[in-house]
Structures are given as C-alpha cells and as structure tokens.
Amino acid sequence: MSLGITADDAALASFNGFKDNRDKMYVIFNISGSHIVVESDKGKDASYDDFISAIKESGDPRFAVVNVEDGSGSEKIVFVAWPPDLSSGRLKMTYASSREEFVQSLEGVQLKLQATDDGELTVDELMRLAKCDV
Length: 134
Description:
It is a single chain. The protein has four helices and six strands. The protein has one domain: 3-Layer(aba) Sandwich (Severin). Strand 2 (about 25-30) and strand 3 form a beta hairpin. The chain is globular. It is of the alpha/beta class and about 130 residues long. A six-stranded mixed sheet has the order 1-3-2-4-5-6, sandwiched between helices. This is ADF-H domain-containing protein. Belongs to the actin-binding proteins ADF family.
C-alpha cells in the first residue's frame, strides 16, 4: 500500500552526491507532508556512534543511508529503516508503506537494515552486516 509519499528532488540529489562523492558519513531522511526530505547529514569526520545518536534523536521513525567499512578496505552503502518500537503506530505505518519505493529510488544502495530497538541498531550490527556481504 502506497500513501503517495515520494522523495523530493533535493533528497535524491543529496543521496546521489553521497554515493558519487563519498564525502559524507551519513544522510538522514524524514517524511514531511507527502515528501521524503533530508533531515541532516554529516561528513566523514562523523563516527558511527554519531550516526546512531542522530537517527534516534527525534524518537520517531527515520530513513538513512550510511557508509560502512566492510573490513576489506571498501565501503558499503547501507540503507537503514528506523521505526522505533516506542513511536506511534500511525508513523510506523507511514514509513513502512513508503520504504520500498524510496529505497528503490536510491540507486546504489548495497545493503538494507531495519532496526526497531537499540539492540538492533549498533556499531557492531552495522559492521557485521557489511562484513557478511564481502
């Protein structure tokens, strides 16, 4: 079921810059009205812990892309869906119904992670996911 929520042009441009330039650690997206928009991003000087804190900060669902080292000297682009257990059912449903269409619009995503609680979104889990794909 689609609610007609689409990525705005700036969000797609931000992702394409993220993918092509590899100058950012992460980009976080949220839903505003009927569009998926960029909420924040950070450069390569950010840490995985910075990313995890930022995506959890609002307490509401978010989407993100993050560059994760795979252990062989390369990076993987990981799409993260964060619908925390404690957020409202309506918000979680809105994000869930938009997720697949959004991730398909992000050409170049290599891995996907859906995490609903703190134990599922950790530095160790990101690293494990990237290394398993090597």
